[in-house]
């Protein structure tokens, strides 16, 4: 009798304990959802809503479109977008076909230079462009030395912007089209060849139609990125008084014309959103016929034959011209005592690097960039991981809304995010303008979609039975996340964190519009060094440091991804 009573008491105690445990878990999960809602609202929804609400002024729209300079900036932006897209696909597509479909010998060389070219920030490429093609630039000196020829090429123009952005973005087209060419089956081409079709007809009727979705998709992405770029037009157009939309927004903000900047930002958002939607639809419809037979693994390569030497020469010359020479000019200039001096041993020095690392102003900028990058990347990865995890284990309206909202910022140019942050955090209740927190919050908004994109592929491959087993054993959502999900997606989290951190080191528009005294970053320094009487040699020195950090970071990302496979 005593034993029965004891068992009943133990059972009631166990139920009570489990009930308390479940109630505690429920409360913790509710708090987690509420906290996530608040964070996402402050970081993403509040700034973007503010931007949209404050742009609803028809009179400003009308006055803006009565201004001729608005049309000129829109026209220049359009010309740059079309030009960069055309040349990027031309360069990248030609090299991709050469590497994937022919017996071209220097495939690794082309791939390496494409990767290095993409890692060099576009603003640094524009600096090297000025160093090479300006009146006292390296090309002018070389022509003078060899042929006693004075040339009059002016490096500041819309065409210069198109060229610089093309050599920065062509690696995107190269990688995308290479993947497309490698992804579809060779059976169709082999069948056409057996039936007597020549190479040109196969290219026109089979190869090109198969990769056209990939070309369209990457073309739209390149158009969007070139349209949203700020650094290159600022370096190559502002000195001659020509504007694109991003520099126009910067100009309005510099003159405290917030309403005009807001309306122009919304126009840019509408264009970017349309491009993003079109791109998403193309990607969702993109399908390739895949194959696993030996022919696919070892496709029959087109022999270049007698044209091999000419093709090899032009391909290598192209890579050296668009990546090697700009990189060399930046490195050489960083060791010059002063820009414009002859390249002689007596004119070379390491003092630029000593000055860079001992100057309190530059040290402060290094520390700021590191801190903002670490905080921003860490917060973005944590938020991204949490949103992905909740969406993965429980797809409902709330988690689906989280997923949609956190990917919004990817469709917005950086300068628009900066405008939205300025409007939202300049006054109470969240008065953060003039502090480091406005930069960090905007960095987080910028980084979250990047982190989500990097981790989503890995988390989707996790077997859901592991999560079910954990939950059935009584583990909470957070315990499951900590003990199962995070260890499995750690490589993705690491590479996402490094990628976000590297972007923070070279980011310009957000830092430039939101910094105040004491919160300068490397991007601000890079943009303002030249105008602060330091000259091109100091700008190049900082550029070399940023390039080295980018290269190291990308090598770590590659190593982490290789280990995770």
Automatic annotation (TrEMBL):
Database matches in Pfam families: BPD_transp_1
ABC transmembrane type-1 domain sequence ranges: 74-279, 366-557
Localization (cell): Cell inner membrane; Cell membrane
Coiled-coil annotated residue ranges, if any: none
UniProt KW keywords: Cell inner membrane, Cell membrane, Membrane, Transmembrane, Transmembrane helix, Transport
Transmembrane region(s): 30-53, 73-100, 112-133, 153-177, 206-224, 258-278, 310-336, 370-392, 404-426, 438-459, 480-505, 534-557
Top-rank taxon: Bacteria
Family matches, as InterPro entries: MetI-like, MetI-like_sf
Key word Transmembrane present: yes
UniProt membrane topology term: Multi-pass membrane protein
Biological-process GO terms, alphabetical: transmembrane transport
Matches recorded under PROSITE patterns: ABC_TM1
GO CC field: plasma membrane
PANTHER family given in the database record: INNER MEMBRANE ABC TRANSPORTER PERMEASE PROTEIN YDCV
Family the entry assigns: Belongs to the binding-protein-dependent transport system permease family.
Annotated protein name in UniProt: Iron ABC transporter permease
């Amino acid at each position: 009798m005593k034993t029965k009573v004891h068992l009943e008491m133990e059972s009631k105690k166990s139920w009570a304990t489990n009930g308390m445990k479940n109630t505690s878990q429920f409360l913790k999960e509710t708090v987690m959802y509420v906290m996530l809602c608040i964070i996402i609202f402050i970081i993403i929804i509040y700034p973007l809503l503010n931007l949209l609400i404050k742009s609803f002024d028809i009179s400003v729209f009308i006055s803006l479109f009565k201004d001729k300079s608005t049309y000129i900036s829109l026209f220049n932006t359009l010309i740059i977008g079309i030009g960069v897209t055309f040349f990027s696909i031309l360069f990248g597509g030609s090299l991709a076909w050469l590497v994937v479909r022919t017996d071209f010998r220097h495939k690794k060389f082309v791939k390496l230079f494409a990767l290095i070219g993409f890692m060099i920030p576009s603003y640094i490429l524009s600096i090297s462009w000025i160093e090479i093609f300006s009146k006292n630039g390296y090309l002018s000196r070389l022509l003078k030395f060899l042929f006693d020829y004075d040339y009059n090429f002016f490096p500041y123009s819309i065409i210069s912007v198109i060229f610089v952005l093309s050599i920065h973005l062509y690696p995107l087209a190269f990688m995308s089209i290479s993947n497309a060419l490698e992804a579809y089956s060779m059976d169709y081409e082999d069948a056409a060849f057996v039936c007597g079709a020549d190479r040109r007809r196969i290219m026109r009727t089979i190869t090109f139609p198969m990769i056209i979705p990939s070309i369209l998709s990457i073309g739209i992405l390149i158009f969007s990125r070139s349209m949203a770029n700020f650094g290159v037009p600022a370096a190559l157009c502002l000195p001659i008084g020509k504007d694109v939309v991003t520099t126009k927004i910067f100009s309005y903000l510099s003159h405290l014309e917030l309403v005009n900047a807001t309306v122009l930002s919304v126009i840019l958002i509408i264009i970017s959103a349309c491009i993003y939607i079109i791109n998403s639809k193309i990607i969702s419809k993109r399908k390739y016929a895949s194959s696993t037979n030996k022919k696919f693994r070892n496709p029959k390569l087109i022999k270049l034959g007698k044209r091999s030497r000419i093709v090899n020469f032009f391909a290598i010359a192209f890579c050296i011209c668009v990546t090697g020479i700009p990189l060399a000019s930046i490195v050489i200039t960083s060791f010059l005592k002063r820009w414009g001096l002859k390249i002689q041993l007596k004119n070379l020095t390491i003092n630029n690097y000593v000055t860079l690392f001992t100057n309190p102003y530059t040290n402060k900028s290094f520390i700021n960039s590191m801190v903002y990058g670490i905080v921003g990347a860490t917060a973005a990865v944590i938020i991204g991981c949490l949103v992905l995890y909740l969406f993965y284990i429980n797809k409902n309206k709330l988690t689906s809304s989280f997923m949609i909202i956190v990917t919004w910022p990817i469709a917005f140019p950086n300068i628009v995010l900066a405008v939205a942050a300025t409007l939202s955090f300049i006054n109470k209740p969240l008065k953060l303008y003039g502090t480091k927190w406005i930069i960090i919050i905007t960095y987080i908004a910028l980084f979250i979609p990047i982190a989500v994109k990097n981790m989503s592929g890995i988390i989707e491959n996790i077997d859901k039975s592991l999560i079910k087993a954990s939950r059935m054993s009584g583990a909470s959502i957070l315990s499951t996340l900590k003990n199962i999900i995070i260890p499995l997606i750690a490589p993705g989290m690491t590479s996402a964190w490094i990628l976000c951190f590297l972007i923070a080191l070279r980011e310009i528009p957000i830092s430039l519009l939101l910094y105040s005294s004491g919160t300068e970053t490397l991007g601000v320094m890079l943009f303002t060094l030249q105008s602060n009487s330091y000259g091109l040699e100091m700008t190049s020195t900082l550029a070399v440091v940023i390039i080295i950090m980018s290269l190291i970071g990308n090598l770590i990302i590659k190593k982490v991804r290789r280990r995770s496979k």
